[in-house]
Write a structure and sequence with these properties.
Helices cover about 30% and strands about 30% of the residues. The protein has about 300 residues and is an alpha+beta fold. It is elongated and about 80 Å long.
Length: about 300
């Protein structure tokens, strides 16, 4: 404006006053400083958390690409796996098992093993598998009818070529009214299906066939296909009473190992000691943590001086 006073730099006095930090309320300065520190720390720790998430593997289950509750309705189990209702129209859908308490599973997941689909002859599910990679086929069973072994025995075959389960007798495995899972790892790569050391041409569909044997009818309670390895699959707890047998086997294995160690003491190896080139470096995942700490400490020191 005309007549408005100016200072030596040519700035209008009123404008200079607006931008002069010395006119700020002294009480707001510490508040702003603390707020900036808090915002910085939030972003910093978010970055560290993201870094560690990408470097350190997180425990959990693999990617589920297919899951159905055979003969039953949709269900979400305690691991977060969503089972679709059974879309099949062949054979017989049965919920006879709902009259029983299923062992080895939480009560809320008993329905997965209480409902089933069976047929008087062989039957199959066709499951689309689009991407290449490592997978695990999880077949869930429970015997809810027979009370002795040798009453229901059948096979499971993939794509009419690979017999992945032979002479399955559920009762013989776990008894009556108890959950049982069969895990079948397989790989899809370059148009080939690799399973159990066998290879066949793959056209995008995995045919899971339950083959009738000489004893009663084949059945299935639930099917899951998960991308990953067997280590990514949630496991059922041990069968009650089986721990004792495993401990006895472990004791025998320990005795064998002790005998091998004694024998090795009297065996002298020739030649210089060679470093194992395949030994895993378990400290590699610590590098990001050390870097984050090294950056954080001086940064925090500088912020405290504000």
């Amino acid at each position: 404006m005309i007549g408005e006073p100016v200072n030596a730099t040519g700035c209008r006095v009123t404008q200079c006053r607006v931008h002069n930090n010395t006119n700020m309320d002294p009480k707001t300065t510490p508040y702003l400083s603390r707020r900036l520190k808090m915002i910085f720390l939030i972003h910093f720790f978010s970055l560290v958390a993201l870094l560690l998430h990408n470097v350190v593997p997180c425990a959990g289950i693999g990617e589920v690409i297919y899951a159905i509750n055979a003969g039953g309705d949709s269900h979400i189990d305690v691991h977060g796996i969503k089972y679709d209702a059974d879309p099949a129209q062949f054979g017989v859908a049965s919920d006879y098992g709902k009259s029983m308490i299923i062992q080895r599973v939480p009560p809320q997941d008993a329905t997965i093993y209480q409902t089933e689909r069976y047929d008087l002859s062989s039957f199959a599910y066709d499951i689309p598998v689009e991407d290449e990679g490592d997978y695990v086929l999880v077949l869930k069973f429970s015997e809810v009818w027979f009370a002795a072994s040798g009453q229901k025995v059948f096979d499971v075959v993939l794509n009419e070529q690979h017999q992945v389960i032979s002479n399955l007798d559920i009762y013989e495995k776990v008894g009556r009214g108890s959950a049982h899972d069969e895990l079948v790892p397989f790989t899809i790569t370059k148009g080939k299906l690799k399973v159990k050391g066998e290879v066949s041409t793959f056209h995008g569909t995995l045919m899971v066939e339950f083959v009738k044997g000489d004893y009663d009818n084949p059945k299935i309670n639930a099917i899951v296909i998960m991308k990953g390895s067997i280590e990514d699959i949630p496991k059922l707890p041990p069968i009650p009473g089986q721990d004792l047998d495993e401990e006895e086997e472990d004791d025998e294995d320990d005795d064998d190992e002790d005998s091998e160690k004694i024998a090795k003491q009297f065996t002298k190896k020739s030649g210089p000691k060679v470093t194992d080139p395949y030994a895993a470096d378990e400290t590699s995942f610590l590098y990001p943590i050390l870097i984050a700490v090294a950056v954080f400490i001086p940064t925090l020191f500088c912020l405290c001086r504000l």
